[in-house]
């Protein structure tokens, strides 16, 4: 599955820690957009979609949450609770986010601007899209 946990170097000293995110240095795409998710409830689940082209890197800068990731063949779960680690998610991966801690702040770097046409929000349509793409 084209997902990867990327270690992000933390520059720490007695004053605290600092992580820098730079296009094509530790982020494998041009960063065109940044958004963040916060004020989440423990029992709420988000996502339930895939992207046709968009690549993203998700970092939990506070608290924790879990991702369910599915490429149409296998399904894995990833726990994020470390601001020095980014979860890279390639295009064509179904994602569901859940088990948010109350203090969770999830920052997401994206390879493109917001475009609803890039979303596949129906799971059956997603598996059809994966099958069609792999037979091309
Ligand atoms: C993803 C996961 C990890 C915007 O107006 N601009 C934006 O850049 C984004 C990301 C969203 N929105 C609007 C669209 C919806 O009206 O914000 C609202 C909530 O978006 P959505 O329901 O898609 O949120 P999530 O948490 O289900 O998914 C988001 C991203 O949309 C998605 O790309 O991979 O986080």
UniProtKB/TrEMBL annotation:
Gene3D superfamilies: Jelly Rolls (2.60.120.10). Residues 1-130 form the Sugar 3,4-ketoisomerase QdtA cupin domain. CDD domains: cupin_QdtA-like. InterPro entries: QdtA_cupin_dom, RmlC-like_jellyroll, RmlC_Cupin_sf. This is FdtA/QdtA family cupin domain-containing protein.
